[in-house]
Amino acid sequence: MKKLVLLLGWMLAVALGAGWGQVTSERVRVLYPDPGLAAYAEQLAREAEAALDVLEPLFGAREGPVVLRINDTVDFFNAYATTLPRRTVELLAPVPAGAVVDLRSPSVTYLLLVHELTHTRQLSFHERPDGRPPLRLGLVTERSAPMPPAWFVEGLATFMESRFTPGGRLDWAFTQGLINALLEEGRFPDLAEMSLYTYDAWPRGLTRYLLGVRFVHDLIERRGWDAVLNALRAYNTGLVAPPSFAEAWERANGRPLEAEWRDWVEGERRRAAAYAEAAQPRGDRVASGRDPVLSPDGRRLAFVRRSGVWVAARDGSGARRLARVQPQRLWWADADTLIYSRYFREGDGVASDVFALDATTGRETRLTRGRHARLAAPAPDGCVYFVRDRAGEAASLQRWCGGRPQEVWRAPEGEHPVGLAVSPGGRLALAVAHGGVVDLALLEGGRLRYLAAGRLGVEPPARPPDPCAGAGAELGTGYRRDRYQHLQPTWDGEEALLFLGDEGGVFDLYRLELGDGRVTRLSATLGGVLGAAAQQGAYLAAELDGRGYGIYPLAPLDEPVGPAAPDAAPGGGGPCSARMPADWRPPERRLERAPYRPWSSLKPYGWLPTGLAPAPN
Fold first, then answer.
1. CA 579 vs CA 361, 436, 463, 547, 576: distances in Å
2. How open is the CA angle 611-613-616, to the nearest 5 degrees?
3. CA-based, 20 to 30 A from 320: which of 120, 165, 351, 615?
4. 274 and 291, same structural domain?
5. First and final C-alpha spacing in the chain
6. What is the CATH number of the domain that holds 124?
7. Residues 139 and 219 occupy one common structural domain
8. Cα separation of 111 and 496, whole Å?
């Protein structure tokens, strides 16, 4: 009887929302699980309204409100959208850590919402060429339009994130480097492969986002926005035998999609050729993997592959897997121990904490519990620093020495550490995202001292024609970068920092002398550098190539660079993109805050075919 009462009480609590709150505006309802997230939910409501302001005119009249749901049980940065049974966007820890997304927008959550709300608008676009509404049978699935190929769905959303913020992955340095590397080695996927959600060859899930956004941009620039809408209208026809998306495109626009694809690939090939001409030849591949780090004696190399953490001799020989885990970044704490933070399943969510890995036995030890720790880095005294950055609270740097972690520094509003390194002498360097740029800083006396802020005097090998002159000028963005990222600080001794910079069009490796502020460019790569290890003037770099990540010895360029001219300082986005100042805030809206009541979620939305079998719908 007691168990039955408890079960009924639990069901009643769930039915009443179990303490959840909601913020509502004209077109948005934000659900949040904790009272401490109320202010954050209001921010999301304002940003979602601002995103709908720019998206709805492109797709026409809206159909019903959008629900945003904050999921605070997941620590990694992501979100997803669905139109069934209602338009919903689930946000998973939307505070980025590391170089997982382009950080050039003053508000990464706004960029994320533009992307996900594009899905809800595009997948609700039911118009047909003749203007008639689609046949309605009361099916639940009638709320969603037919699903286009993967490259179009994600490419269009990624295009919109790039069009309406100064960030976005259209002109991201990682995107350019990936395309360069694939073309160099003849591993570029074809249009059929691009269309698959299950495509598993390199670059796997990145294909539909990063190659898709460039193809979508090319179509819009040359054919105009109406060409996209007309193709969707043609795709929405046919109840029994609907056309393929390629057929719909040709029917609407008079040209085969394969021909459009070939033209785009040829344009990307010309662009990549300019990068190849400027690239420095590299040596032989030491290992396949990313995040290289050398042991204190310099004899062993640890790195990460898709299959886990590996260790090898410095030249890559004798490689063996230590553990099937995916760290956020690797560091040697001593001759036999690796330190990192990583994500892992915990209950119904995904948590992040600090771990130690014995490089001899492969035994992993969890050092912190429930700390939501990211970017862990060991200190010379045996302690570990890590970043805690959660939605609804200020980011902080914390120090763990075997007991309860202690807060070392709390970030001002709008500043988010996305990189962390500790020198051999215990100095702390961070990469901090703020106002649409990412800059290096030292933590000294409890305060940040920014280094190498702004833009370096490095230009991409070639600039494309002005995209504002194209047929899709109203939505064109181009590939011009006016905001820059200095990522992944790594100490080179005690008086110099290595970092990744994207001024050259792809990520390359730079060295900053702390004494005189001199910056030296160490690499000029085709695919870009994604991590590096240094020891006594010798460098190993993880570069993008046609097979994924490869670790190569780096012969440093030692090319001095300096600050750009004052008129080239960080500004807005590309020449056609929306201008967003560093202190951008969404417009004020009329908002209402109230306890969440799930009764509207129980409203019938239609029926599903059941094969003539009785079933509750």
1. 53, 11, 20, 37, 9
2. 110
3. 351
4. no
5. 31
6. 3.30.2010.30
7. no
8. 34
Tokens 């004696």, located at residue: 297
Q: What is the DSSP letter of 382?
A: S
In Å, the largest CA–CA distance within the chain is 78
Based on the fold, state whether residues 303 and 251 are members of the same structural domain.
Answer: no
* Nearest partner of 37 among 79, 66, 70, 73, judged by Cα: 70
DSSP state of 207: I
Angle, CA of 109, 477 and 187, to the nearest 5°: 90
Q: What is the count of structural domains for the chain?
A: 3
Q: Are residue 190 and residue 101 in the same domain, yes or no?
A: no
Strands 66-71 and 28-32: parallel
CA distances from 209 to 32, 114, 174, 396, 487 (A): 28, 14, 12, 31, 22
For residues 294 and 392, membership in a common domain is answered with yes
The residue assigned the tokens 């590397």 is: 181
Q: Outline where DSSP puts E strands in 314-394.
A: 320-323, 331-334, 337-346, 349-358, 364-366, 373-378, 384-388
The CA radius of gyration of the chain, in Å to the nearest whole number, is: 25
Q: Is 461 part of any domain?
A: no
Which residue type sits at 310? W
Q: Is 99 exposed, middle or buried (0-12, 13-18, 19+ CB in 10 A)?
A: buried
Has residue 475 been placed in a domain? no
Last residue of a domain, one of 259, 278, 297: 278
Q: In whole angstroms, give the CA distance from residue 459 to residue 437.
A: 17
Distances (CA, A) of 109 to 254, 296, 595: 38, 39, 24
- Percentage of the chain beyond pLDDT 90 is 68
- Give dist(CA 600, CA 457) in Å, integer: 56
Domain end (from 248, 278, 308): 278
Q: Could you give the count of Cα atoms lying within 13 Å of 377 in the half-sphere of its Cβ?
A: 21
Per-residue pLDDT tens digits for 505-546: 999 999 999 998 899 999 999 999 999 999 888 899 999 999
Claim to verify: residue 291 and residue 262 sit in the same structural domain: no
Does some domain include residue 164? Answer: no
Inside any domain, residue 414: yes
Is pTM beyond 0.85? Reply is yes
Q: What is the pLDDT of residue 598?
A: 82
- For 160-167, what is the mean pLDDT? 92
Q: Report angle CA 246, 252, 257 to the nearest 5 degrees.
A: 30
Residue 225, domain extent: 172-278
